[in-house]
Amino acid sequence: MENMTNKEVMLRLTDIHKKFGSLEVLKGIDLELKKGQVMAIIGPSGSGKSTLLRCINRLEEIDTGKIEIKNRILAQNNGENVAEYVSEKEAREILSCTGMVFQQFNLFPHMTVLQNLLEAPILVQKRDKQEVTVEAEALLKKVGLLDKKDCYPARLSGGQQQRVAIARALCMKPDIMLFDEPTSALDPELTGEVLKTMRELAAEHMTMVVVTHEMAFAREAANHVVFMDGGVIVEQGTAQQVIDNPQEDRTRDFLKNML
Amino acid sequence: MDNLLNTVVLMLEGTQVTLQIFFITLIASLPLGLLAALGRISEIKPLSRFMEFYIWLMRGTPLMLQLLFVYFALPMVGIMLPDIAAALLAFTLNYAAYFAEIFRAGIQSISRGQYEAAKTLGLTHTQTMQRIVIPQMIRHVLPPVSNETINLVKDTSLIYILAMNDLLRVARTIVQREFDMTPFVVAAVFYLIMTFVLTWGFKKLEAHYGKYDK
């Protein structure tokens, strides 16, 4: 296992609280993600793991706490203990180093596979179209879908769509990749190809946070496993510590049902 | 035979007026409808309320009444418009309201996931609307827009009350003069040809926008 202690901190969450109405889904989360770390967040449905992930890139806004990405503050508490976000422009800049892959893929159906990859780098990063096309095609080749570049997403299987979605996020050259249950919407026989792509990414030391139900993936590819339940982190550590030798009853109960 | 030819020539002139009203209304009311739809779903409350009121007013009163109002009431408050401009104003305001509701439904049919994907890729809200939401919306709204467009062809005949010589008014004038019903049949054929061309055009558009389903 690689030693992570001296690595640069990519993401730091401090005492994150989040409510939906009167339901508190995150009850004080502290978390640190280091460069090259592959973090798997596991836990039962409703434990708050997807919400936590979505709070990182502001798809949900936190109520209190502090979010720092690459040492820049995205949100922190004001005097009244309410989280305040930095300006829209600054937030966009800070979050530009994150990429996200969704459970439902969310490809743009009116664009071909290649156009899906090119859209944001050209529109947002104002990069040269030809240069991005070369990179996009290389990424498609890497996920094994170069031959589908002119297809519309509806023509692809779920597994293929998800691999395009990964390539689309990577085309923005993110430093942190966030995966929100990337295989949960897939037929079982299609999860393998997506997990393979993610394993390759992990092997290249991409910094990743993966909310997942795939214990095999968490065990093999993740070097840090976080178990959440009821809006808190129950325990975290290496896969060996958390999955193979859990210390908490709640973790044991959950894993017993999963495996 | 000469008589029929004469009738057709007169009615072609009437058709010109009909088509003029039709095209100008369509070209003006589609973008206006989109703006009204965006205003209607805007988070700026006064704007949204205003659009809601406008749509309610336009859909809640007869187009005929709106035409008469613009034609007769506006001059009383000192706004003098040429006949054709008055007709176009009423038609455009009316159709924009209907298009607005169609566009609003189309925009709201786009899933939240599309907005989220665009956001995580760094697109601004305007970019998301321009590049992701509206292009998908256009395809969803083609069938109802086609419907409204065909309605518009026929609604143009309402301008006969403003004494403008559109297709229907020309037909009626000839019928009353000659005691011959043929012009009505010819008018029906003309309307059918126009709606046929529109139906065909929209079918082509739907096929074009449907290509990414296959």
What does this structure look like?
By secondary structure, chain A is of the alpha/beta class. Chain A has helices at 49-56, 88-95, 113-123, 129-142, 158-170, 188-203, 215-221, 239-244, 249-258; strands spanning 9-20, 23-34, 38-42, 64-69, 72-77, 83-85, 98-101, 176-180, 207-211, 224-229, 232-237. Chain A has a domain at 107-174. Chain A has 9 helices and 11 strands. Chain A has a 6-stranded mixed β-sheet, sandwiched between helices. The radius of gyration of chain A is 18 Å and the shape is globular. The model of chain A has no long low-confidence stretch (mean pLDDT 94). Chain B has a single domain (2-213), classed as MetI-like (MetI-like fold), CATH 1.10.3720. Chain B is built from 8 helices and no strands. In chain B, helix 1 crosses helix 8 (182-209). The A-B interface holds A 57, 59, 92, 95-96, 98-100, 102, 104, 106-112, 119-120, 123-125, 152-155, 168-169, 172 and B 111, 113-114, 116-117, 119-124, 127, 131-132, 135-136, 139, 209, 211-214.
H/E series of chain A: EEEHEEEHEHHHEHEHEEHH
Write down how many β-strands of chain A occur, each being a DSSP E stretch of 2 or more residues. Answer: 11
Structural class, from secondary structure content of chain A? alpha/beta
Distance between the termini of chain A: 24 Å
Helix and strand layout, with pairings?
The complex is a heterodimer of chains A (259) and B (214).
Chain A: E1 9-20, E2 23-34, E3 38-42, H1 49-56, E4 64-69, E5 72-77, E6 83-85, H2 88-95, E7 98-101, H3 113-123, H4 129-142, H5 158-170, E8 176-180, H6 188-203, E9 207-211, H7 215-221, E10 224-229, E11 232-237, H8 239-244, H9 249-258
Helix pairs in contact in A: 3-4, 3-5, 5-6
Chain B: H1 2-40, H2 45-60, H3 63-76, H4 83-108, H5 112-120, H6 125-155, H7 167-178, H8 182-209
Helix pairs in contact in B: 1-2, 1-4, 1-7, 1-8, 2-4, 3-4, 4-6, 5-6, 6-8, 7-8
What can be said about this structure in brief?
With 259 residues, chain A is α/β, with parallel strands linked by helices.
